[in-house]
Amino acid sequence: MVKVAVCGAAGGIGQPLSLLLKQSDLITHLALFDVVNAPGVAADLSHINTRSKVTGHGKESMDEALSGAHTVIIPAGVPRKPGMTRDDLFKINAGIIRDLAEGVAKNCPGAFVLVISNPVNSTVPIVCEVLKKHGVFNPKKVFGISTLDVVRSSRFASEINPAIDPKSTRVTVIGGHSGVTIVPILSQIPGQSFSKEQLEILTQRIQYGGDEVVKAKDGAGSATLSMAHAGARFATAVLEAAVTGKSGLVESTYVNLAADADATAAFRARTGLDYFAQDVEFGHEGVKRILPLPAISVFEQALLDEAIPELKVNIAKGTSFISDSAKI
Ligand SMILES: NC(=O)c1ccc[n+]([C@@H]2O[C@H](COP(=O)([O-])OP(=O)(O)OC[C@H]3O[C@@H](n4cnc5c(N)ncnc54)[C@H](O)[C@@H]3O)[C@@H](O)[C@H]2O)c1
Ligand SMILES: O=C(O)C[C@H](O)C(=O)O
């Protein structure tokens, strides 16, 4: 029995993500939770002729949706409008994520938790702090989905250099998921030979790819379809490793560095951070290992140096949102 709960399932990401998950033979039950329209989306998807059962759960039924879930995927919350930063979403999304994490702690404390809602650099620490508060935190099982940065990296790189196949090229993206905290390691793309100017343009485009979509949608939200693709790719990797035992599955993802005790010290020494996006290999229990940082160029080291102070602030904001409220 592999129950996957999608929280925010009726939204711009939630609907196409649920559609993609309905194609998966790894999932036996898809539980769709949203404060609006979840039963409608569930009824629609339930007619698709794959094996999984689909159920819809409205506002009052979060516990039912989460109960016994193997994996919980969270695209709930508000998206950006032009002129906003991801951090501007904190005010609304922090409370939404906290309440969903409380639901996870109560109903499925051993679940994998895959966080899409922004600002990811802060929402992942919120989830971890809530789970810690309830004594059910397993750092190997909580992930910030930064796969869209990886997807954009190979796509945008292939537009500059058509010899790069976007589908089979996986670019490591370290740091976090917003602006300068997104650090694509383009120097490691096999066979790449970008000029300095191309590297600068490409890096800037990857770091601000989200803004490109927000601007084009002109007030109607942010990336949804490409995010659904990225979210399904990430969830499938986590599930394949956990459910089928498939080995060698690696994706860049934003995790609590305690997820790999062997790697923690080296990463803390290099970054001073408790959370960081880096390539992770998946196993039965989630994080099997955090891979060592790849060799990075002088240009990438400068990007990392710029990312670290911002990440520190984002992480502290998420962590203190829970720890400060516990003191009241
Ligand atoms: N990690 C990434 O790379 C990435 C990419 C794109 C978007 N995002 C983020 O994903 C989030 C969702 O984006 P979207 O475009 O789908 O937004 P959306 O507004 O279209 O959908 C969000 C859904 O969440 C639901 N929701 C709100 N509060 C809820 C709650 N308490 N419980 C359950 N559901 C709730 C809403 O009813 C809505 O259906 C945003 O925060 C956005 O910034 C992240
Ligand atoms: O840009 C956004 O706000 C959504 C998402 O984080 C993205 O990278 O597209």
From TrEMBL:
Reaction(s) the record says it catalyses: (S)-malate + NAD(+) = oxaloacetate + NADH + H(+)
Enzymatic class: oxidoreductase
UniProt binding sites for substrate: R80, R86, N118, R152
Alphabetized UniProt keyword annotations: NAD, Oxidoreductase, Tricarboxylic acid cycle
Active-site annotation: H177
Keyword DNA-binding in record: no
PANTHER family with a match to the protein in the record: MALATE AND LACTATE DEHYDROGENASE, MALATE DEHYDROGENASE, MITOCHONDRIAL
Record-given protein name: malate dehydrogenase
Source organism: Podila minutissima
